[in-house]
């Protein structure tokens, strides 16, 4: 995957998963050694696009202590707070996950291992993120979009602009539909609070959209799921929500 990941914690772009991982390790070492920065969980969208609700970011300790925490815009990224918010710390790998990863990597070629690591990196980066798209609503309805709609191409553009992720032309996005011939008339919003990460990943992996560009058009407000198909046959869930402008 040749994608550009820019997190608010790092403030710069990286062109490969290896560079992101190296920068993250360096960032962690800086935090441990000097103690001038802290990890936070954003409770709401932060000013100037620094982070979005649910993001895990790193900021100066004074900024956190004197501004973000008192204004209840963020919480310290402690295990207790992750559990309280029913979130998974994107920087934590369970022993079960570590063993499974090592087993996969031991039987792979260098190219296959590269694709796996890039897919895992993107999955980890997107785990607690929700892509947000804003649309006008028909004045005679509470949730029908008018004018306008949301398509897979809109997701690709927003993914680049909001989350700073650029996908290759060969890496496709398909909006998830439980209907065999999913259309804009039958597609229903989802409720992510009712689903676990494992269920969402399973839905995406089992979803087999038709070849070619995604033709689904979303015309209602609500939460939806998309499948990002990467090199090596890997799939990554993309959660997104359509909100009223």
From TrEMBL:
GO terms for biological process: translation. Residues 49-84 form the Ribosomal protein L9 domain. The keyword ATP-binding does not apply. GO terms for cellular component: ribosome. InterPro entries: Ribosomal_bL9, Ribosomal_bL9_N. Keywords: Ribonucleoprotein, Ribosomal protein. The keyword Ribosomal protein applies. Pfam families: Ribosomal_L9_N (PF01281). It comes from the Eukaryota. One of its GO terms (molecular function) is structural constituent of ribosome. Signal peptide: none annotated. PANTHER family: 50S RIBOSOMAL PROTEIN L9 (PTHR21368). This is LSU ribosomal protein L9P. It comes from Nitzschia inconspicua.
